[in-house]
Amino acid sequence: MKRSIWQMPRARAAAFAVFARNFLVWRKLLGPAIVLNFGEPVIYLLGLGIGLGALVGDIGGLPYLVFLASGIVASSAMISVSFEGMYSVYTRMVPQKTFDAIMATPLDIDDIILGETVWAAFKGLLSAVAILIVAALLGAVPGGMMALWALPVVFLLGLAFAGPAIIMTAIADNYDFFNYYFVLVVTPMFMLSGVFFPIETLPGWMQTAVLILPLTHAIEVIRPLIVGEPVEHLFGHLAVLAGFAVVAYYVAVALVRRRLWD
Amino acid sequence: MLQEPVIRARGLVKCFGALRAVEGVDFDVPPARCFGFLGPNGAGKTTTLKMLMGLADFDAGELSVLGFELPAQARAIRARVGLVPQGDNLDPDFTVRENLFMYARFFGLTRREVAGRVDELLEFANLTHKADARVDQLSGGMQRRLTIARALVNDPDIVVLDEPTSGLDPQMRHVIWGRLSELRARGVTLVLTTHYMEEAERLCDELVVMDHGRILDQGSPGELIRRHVEPDVIELRGEVSDGVFATLSSMSSRCERHGTAVYVYTGAPTVILDFLGEADGLTVIHRRAGLEDVFLHLTGRELRE
Ligand SMILES: Nc1ncnc2c1ncn2[C@@H]1O[C@H](COP(=O)(O)OP(=O)(O)OP(=O)(O)O)[C@@H](O)[C@H]1O
Ligand SMILES: [Mg+2]
User: Fold this and answer.
1) Domains of chain B, start order
2) How far does residue B140's CA lie from ligand 1's centre (Å)?
3) Residues of chain A contacting residue B60, judged by C-beta atoms under 8 Å apart
4) Looking at CA atoms only, how far is residue A48 from chain B in angstroms?
5) Measuring CA to CA, which residue among A179, A128, A164 is closest to residue A245?
6) Which one of A108, A211, A256, B3 has the lowest number of neighbouring Cβ atoms within 10 Å?
7) Torsions phi, psi for B242 (to 5 deg)
């Protein structure tokens, strides 16, 4: 009679309705969303890429703007997914009780979390696309059309980051709790995973340490695709991202069940 | 009842840690009737409704809804049941009409399939003129009506309503009673909880009275009244001396003092009213016994929580 929170999730195609709900709401607020998606990268790329780039010169044989743009594509997807998976999912789960409303329909938490995960990854993809467009206009995408192959990788990166964010949401008592995750997880990855400088410049032990971070693996694939170079260890990197995505989804489902099941 | 019950509960138990919120309840809900749960705050009504929606586990017992067993077939049950929760959880990011379309989608129903029904439901809930308003622009009563309409979007066989009219004004309550009666007349089974005795008396064909997770009694409102209280109540407000109280006790079946009021339960009101004709400074109210008297008799008068 008791359901185990750890029983295997059985999400169905019906989960798409949850994605559709979020998409329809997002479409209503398109203006501010686009300002955020395009405004931020323009500022980063112009400020850091062009300003700092003039001082730094080339990094690893790449103009700094190119190096930075390919890193920001990945990191901005991570940040966008993390915001969605925490602040937005928390809003729907706790104050708005949207999840309670959906749970009274045939959909289960498995479906809701799958829909939210794919939606968060989609938001990450949108921000990556915006940056790629801005970077292309600034002439920072030497890979040309090959750079489009970065987008499925960004989506996988989004799936890998959605789960951990939803896990935080499942155990959060309020919005302030998310500060821990941003300070202890998102910001270190942003600084250390090769967005601003190559990980080869880190001390040896740290180079090994950053290999546990999913953003490092995403950048190792996304950067060469944007730059137009061959990708090394492609499947290894993708496997790490996929592993994060699957395990984090499973744990996220279990913890949301623990919170919402009576 | 000759027809198969649409909901059947046997020995249902639900614990929250050490608290036994529901302690072994049995009931059968017949089809196309209105079945009510009455009980003080914390009696276990919402918990019982959540269990039969498959939204809460139970620790012991058996529960089946529309022939499906819980908890295994919860999804199949929810596809055929509509829920009006105790607190509204409408989607604030959508308009009234969009709320209905979106909810239909969670049942796997497409816009095209439900377009006609959504218009009917807007009509049913008197919300056609507000169809494009945002939810936070609606009054409490309108939100409640929208929640009821939303619970009907999948054309359910059973509608579960947890305090559907709490916090609404009398006019609105009458409108909702009318709508619920229409539904029952169409063959929909209603399961509701309420703290309004008048609502239970008007709507419910059958009631259970719960307290501390147990069912104290069950039956039609008329049966419960006949079983538990005398047909007439005389209520006295003002100073009732001990002497008068003693006399009233001897003349009636039951006489109780609560706060500044005295309640006299009797089958022969005339003699008592004659006797009281001489008492000055008392407000005397003579009425027929109702569900409220049954409720207070069964669950006591002390405050909860
Ligand atoms: N999720 C929960 N965790 C712990 N205790 C709970 C939970 N939900 C309900 N309870 C407890 O179970 C008991 C029954 O609660 P329930 O909500 O079913 O009462 P109710 O009859 O609906 O009351 P009301 O008329 O106030 O809505 C109460 O003591 C309540 O505090
Ligand atoms: Mg309740």
Assistant:
1) 7-226 (3.40.50.300), 230-289 (3.30.70)
2) 23
3) 1
4) 37
5) A164
6) B3
7) -60, -35
